[in-house]
């Protein structure tokens, strides 16, 4: 194997990640027309509602029973980065924050000491299909930041730089690419310190085109997720679709698309190098801390749930917006 390539693996559900990342999942659902109440117009018969992760007719309901998505659930000790390339996501949380984002927007949420939120996928269109393409990435917090106050931040697609190169484009969600900087991440994030070299890039390589990834410092991890196209070539190695590639970040890496356009997600960062204890939606450093997190959630519900339903969605005719915990509302 070429020395720039450390490992090649099949993309499962969820995708394999490296420290400082904990989890990455790719949702691609070709939802049908909406029923006017933000759910699918098609029948739900034959689905395991509440736990529907099997692709049927091109889409899934996940934990939703009438509207697809993930009703209220808790998190502690890490961050979620949610990239909504296509379709929309309705956010509601225990801080009273809310939002509707999509069509290229990114939500960055620091769970910190604990928060509940819901992520529903409203089917806004009743006259056409509602395709959803969404990534969710879990970025760990170091021990010193496990109990910071929860934080909710929107990176609107109008504010995210997209670098147009001759044979490719790079959407810079976190970090920098050839001196082009992403919007600032959440303030307590591992990504907030530039020395940690955290980067999240979405790269589109045109057919028969290429791109060269810049060098990072030695010890920084970099994983390439090839999720759309036919084949790509990395340092002379041919890679099939739906594979991940762990590469040596301290070397320039050239990616070539062959007979089709290719799309890749790249996650990069210096490892936190601390013990990780995980149980479902809680990520701490020790099993004792995990038990404490579960006990506290049972007692406090991390502030409770201020919305009428656990699968809360916003008004059908509402556009993209964010309501922050202090009551500030931003309309897009």
TrEMBL record:
<dbReference type="InterPro" id="IPR011051">
    <property type="entry name" value="RmlC_Cupin_sf"/>
</dbReference>
<dbReference type="InterPro" id="IPR008778">
    <property type="entry name" value="Pirin_C_dom"/>
</dbReference>
<protein>
    <recommendedName>
        <fullName>Pirin</fullName>
    </recommendedName>
</protein>
<dbReference type="InterPro" id="IPR014710">
    <property type="entry name" value="RmlC-like_jellyroll"/>
</dbReference>
<dbReference type="InterPro" id="IPR003829">
    <property type="entry name" value="Pirin_N_dom"/>
</dbReference>
<dbReference type="InterPro" id="IPR012093">
    <property type="entry name" value="Pirin"/>
</dbReference>
<feature type="domain" description="Pirin C-terminal">
    <location>
        <begin position="203"/>
        <end position="303"/>
    </location>
</feature>
<feature type="domain" description="Pirin N-terminal">
    <location>
        <begin position="62"/>
        <end position="139"/>
    </location>
</feature>
<dbReference type="Pfam" id="PF05726">
    <property type="entry name" value="Pirin_C"/>
</dbReference>
<dbReference type="Pfam" id="PF02678">
    <property type="entry name" value="Pirin"/>
</dbReference>
<comment type="similarity">
    <text>Belongs to the pirin family.</text>
</comment>
């Amino acid at each position: 194997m070429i020395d720039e390539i450390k490992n090649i693996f099949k993309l499962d559900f969820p995708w394999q990640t490296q420290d400082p990342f904990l989890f990455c999942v790719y949702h691609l659902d070709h939802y049908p027309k909406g029923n006017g109440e933000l759910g699918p117009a098609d029948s739900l018969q034959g689905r395991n509602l509440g736990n529907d992760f099997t692709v049927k007719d091109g889409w899934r309901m996940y934990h939703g029973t009438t509207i697809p998505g993930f009703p209220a659930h808790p998190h502690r000790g890490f961050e979620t980065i949610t990239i909504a390339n296509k379709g929309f996501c309705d956010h509601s949380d225990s801080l009273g924050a809310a939002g509707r984002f999509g069509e290229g927007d990114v939500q960055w949420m620091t769970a910190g000491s604990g928060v509940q939120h819901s992520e529903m996928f409203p089917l806004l269109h009743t006259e056409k299909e509602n395709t959803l393409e969404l990534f969710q990435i879990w970025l760990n917090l170091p021990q010193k930041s496990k109990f910071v106050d929860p934080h909710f931040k929107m990176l609107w697609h109008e504010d995210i730089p997209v670098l147009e190169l001759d044979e490719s484009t790079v959407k810079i969600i976190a970090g920098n690419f050839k001196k082009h900087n992403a919007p600032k991440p959440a303030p307590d994030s591992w990504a907030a310190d530039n020395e940690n070299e955290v980067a999240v890039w979405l790269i589109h390589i045109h057919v028969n085109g290429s791109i060269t990834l810049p060098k990072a410092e030695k010890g920084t991890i970099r994983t390439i997720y090839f999720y759309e196209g036919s084949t790509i070539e990395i340092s002379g190695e041919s890679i099939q679709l739906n594979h991940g590639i762990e590469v040596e970040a301290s070397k320039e890496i050239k990616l070539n698309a062959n007979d089709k356009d290719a799309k890749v997600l790249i996650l990069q960062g210096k490892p936190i190098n601390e013990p990780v204890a995980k149980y479902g939606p809680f990520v701490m450093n020790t099993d004792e801390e995990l038990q404490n997190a579960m006990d506290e959630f049972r007692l406090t519900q991390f502030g409770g749930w201020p919305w009428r339903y656990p699968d809360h969605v916003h008004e059908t005719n509402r556009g993209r917006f964010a309501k922050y915990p202090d009551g500030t509302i931003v309309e897009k």
